[in-house]
Amino acid sequence: MSEILWSGLGLVAPLRARVLGMPPQHVTGVSIDTRTLQPGDLFFAIQGDRSDGHDYVGAAFERGAAAAVVDEGHAAALKHLGTLYIVHDVLKALEGLGRAARKRSRARIIAVTGSVGKTSTKEMLRKVLSDAGPTHASDKSYNNHWGVPLTLARLPESARYAVFEIGMNHAGEITALVDMVRPHVAIVTTVAPVHLEHFANVEEIAQAKAEIFSGIVKGGVAILNRDIETFPLLETAAKASPAGYALTFGADPAADASLVEFNAAEDFSRVSARVLGQDVSFRLGAPGRHMAINALAVVLAARAVGLDFRTIADSLASVAPAQGRGARETLWLDGDDPLSRFLLIDESYNANPASMRAAIDLLGAAQPTGAGRRIAVLGDMLELGPTGPQLHAALKDDLLRNGVDLVFAAGPLSRHLYEALPPEKRGAWTEAAAALQAPVAAALRAGDVVMVKGSNGSKLHALAAGLKGRFAVAEPQKSEVV
Ligand SMILES: Nc1ncnc2c1ncn2[C@@H]1O[C@H](COP(=O)(O)OP(=O)(O)OP(=O)(O)O)[C@@H](O)[C@H]1O
Ligand SMILES: [Mg+2]
After folding, report:
1. In a 10 Å sphere around its CB, with 0-12 CB exposed, 13-18 middle and 19+ buried, how is residue 424 labelled?
2. Is the pLDDT assigned to residue 474 strictly greater than 60?
3. 255 lines ligand 1 (CB under 6 A)
4. What ligand has the least distance to the C-alpha of 114?
5. 279 and 425 housed in the same domain
């Protein structure tokens, strides 16, 4: 049976609600989406950009919701469906429950922000901390004005550790979110020119990320990347925060967790680092130098909440890249021919210049077999503002340096890159990603390594899924396993 999350009566005060109907004994989860709602959940009828949760209260009860939180205006029309907690503002009620969860929690709490690497770092922490004790962490990239309070409201009393992803599009957003989370440890993974449309320059972005330090509880720890140009600005903010000082990570030898050696194997890495005066070596299950740098932040954060180096290192070995963030799949051009296999590196979850470069480096580190080639299938990086065309064309050097043999590209911005490439490296360019799948599929050969990446809006994830659907994902013959 699922753990009791909240008692029915205990919900009234944090929600500032009046109850219509019989309050449930307890609820075992919190949901804002009927598609993923589990029986026993408390359903919050949140007003979204495209839909209003009040239209789904019936569906929530059909799926087994224990009760629903709705606003005054909808109460009369919905009361026949089941028990309602009636509030003035449903999102505010969710925040109220989140704050109550934080207040009752005895967990060590870690918050992660940054221009890129938030989910990767959060998932690494989830793995490492889960190996040490009951751990709660954000689902997916639930990092915004509803994702953060939802994750808090789901925090079980029994959790010993919790990890929260915090994101932002505008200055001031992180301040509001971290004020609810009140972490013991806050991490800024990196700062890069992402979401430039809402900011004048990278310093302004760094300033907005640094807001996370303002919410650290007294005596807590600020962890930040020492390799980035905005490091001094972040360090100043950390020192002025309740933490009062910063721990740093990066390739910089002066960092508290500094990368000494990085060796890329096919689908893992060997990392040696000097951390807080000690030599630490570990195998990291998620390949790529960028993941090794993320892992150094993880080591510092896990140390800060009391884990020892040995335990942390053991857990990092079994980290796996998340879906769309470097997960690898071997596919067969011909399901009956074990030699016709090629490797798909699915990096299709989002892109910006920093993660695009990291993914191209990952392709460079991968080894094609036989007559195979390195193939990049790239979509547009969105939200870059007026420098977009230039930032795309600049990837040419990364592709050449990494020995990429063939490039397929989709979208108007990627066209600037495609046309900058030498003719023999051009596979095909299409306006929409959907049209690119056929030429990519036709060009594939046994032994190829194919890396797929683009911003979520450029729909490269559909292309990656299309390739997986088109080619066999058969288990290799026993004799083929190496
Ligand atoms: N430190 C890093 N530097 C560059 N790229 C990275 C880094 N960490 C992760 N990536 C890559 O960036 C992409 C997005 O990673 P991830 O999902 O962890 O970022 P995020 O910050 O959670 O993104 P979002 O803002 O969309 O939630 C993935 O392709 C991942 O492999
Ligand atoms: Mg994320």
Report:
1. exposed
2. no
3. no
4. 1
5. no
- Residue 98 in any domain: the answer is no
Task: Give the number of whichever ligand sits closest to the CA of residue 118.
Answer: 1
Question: Which ligand has the shortest distance to the CA of 168?
Answer: 1
Q: Is residue 479 scored above 50 in pLDDT?
A: no
Residues 293 and 205 in one domain: yes
Q: Per-residue confidence at 473, pLDDT binned at 50, 70, 90?
A: confident
Cα(403) to centroid of ligand 1, in Å? 23
pLDDT digits (tens, 9 = 90+) for 17-55: 999 999 999 999 999 999 999 999 999 999 988 899 999
Give the range of the structural domain holding residue 23, as residue numbers without chain letter. 6-93
Between the CA of 150 and the centroid of ligand 2 the distance, in Å, is: 15
Q: Which segments of 379-424 are extended strands (E)? A: 406-410
Q: Is the CB of 209 under 6 A from ligand 1?
A: no
Query: Cα 464 from chain centroid?
Result: 18
Domain count, the chain: 3
Predicted confidence at residue 45, as pLDDT, reads 98
The average pLDDT across 425-440 equals 97
Q: Is the CB of 303 under 6 A from ligand 1?
A: no
Query: Best mutation site among 120, 139, 267 for ligand 1, i.e. most ligand atoms within 8 A of its Cβ?
Result: 120
Are residues 171 and 202 located together in one domain of the fold? yes
Q: How far is the CA of 119 from the centre of ligand 1 (A)?
A: 7
Give yes or no: residues 341 and 304 share one domain: no
Nearest to 448 by CA among 377, 399, 375: 375
pLDDT at 266: 74
Q: Could you tell me if residue 284 is inside a domain? A: yes
Residue 64 resides in a domain: yes
Measured from the Cα of 190, ligand 1's closest atom is 1
For ligand 1, pick from 355, 361, 455 the residue to mutate: most ligand atoms within 8 Å of CB. Answer: 355
d(CA 277, CA 313): 16
Question: Which residues, including other chains, have CB under 8 Å from residue 55's CB and lie 6 or more apart?
Answer: none
Quick: pLDDT tens for 334-376.
988 888 999 999 999 999 999 999 999 999 999 999 999 999 9
Q: Are residues 89 and 109 in the same domain?
A: no
- What is the torsional sign of CA 33, 34, 40, 45? positive
User: Which domain CATH number covers 267?
Assistant: 3.40.1190.10
Q: Provide the whole-model pTM.
A: 0.91
Q: Which atom of ligand 1 is nearest to the CA of 294?
A: 1
Q: Which residue has the tokens 């009620």?
A: 93
Q: Assess if residue 481 is contained within a domain.
A: no
Q: 130 and 38: one domain?
A: no
